[in-house]
Design brief:
Elements: H1 9-29, H2 41-48, H3 52-64, E1 68-71, E2 75-78, H4 89-95, H5 100-121, H6 124-139, H7 143-160, H8 164-172, H9 174-186, H10 188-194, H11 197-206, H12 210-227, H13 236-252
Antiparallel strand pairs: 1-2
Length: 254
Amino acid sequence: MPAATFEPPAHRGLLTESIARRLQNEIRSGAIPVGAKLPSERELAVQFGASRNVLREVLRRLEAQHLIEVAPGRGSFVIDQSTADARSYDALYRAGRPTVRQLIEARIPIEVEIVGLATSRATDVQIEAMRTANAAMIAATDPVVKARADLEFHDTIAAAAGNPVLRIMLSSIGGMMFEMMLRSNSDPSIAEPGVPHHPEILEAITARDTDRARHHMREHLSLALRTYGPDLDLSLDVMAANHIETLLHRRSTP
């Protein structure tokens, strides 16, 4: 494989995120119009200086987001985002260019209520799932893997709340949450003060202490209000793109 297309495992996830975001933005902005055929995996790999495995994952993600349709033997085509079936909640949210602050304002009432319900309803098996997700997050060294484990931790709490409406509501903002978690888990100024919150939330849930669980969740989600600085009022898309490029630059610099 050419040197330009070799990616260390920890670099591969960030590169996938970066390329996926660039193509998402071009499709959503209309720069790549509806009906347009995307270049082949090989052509995209050359264009972005990435391996075909990375581009394959990027295209799978675009298809899952209903941005493209893959026609076997013909290629990948941009599909109409105005149809009800294709227009996901994530796309609707992003159309309003929400900021980091606005996402936090939305998460607090949803997740504080979720953790309160989970504290009184979680089974031992569900609490163990929370512990497993948290352990995976702590053990991860790849920032993308760590962020996905963080998202899984919050989803296990939502599952334990026993309210499918609340879980779906939280899931609908999962893409934006992931972008915040990627930043929070790879920026030392944010990650270090945030580390104790998951164990504190877990301890409160295990003790069936609803008030304490709600308090720790609120503190956990409010941390970014104190640590994100000027990025707090950037759109999530801009904040995430800037941070991913910063991480890629750090990893490519000797």
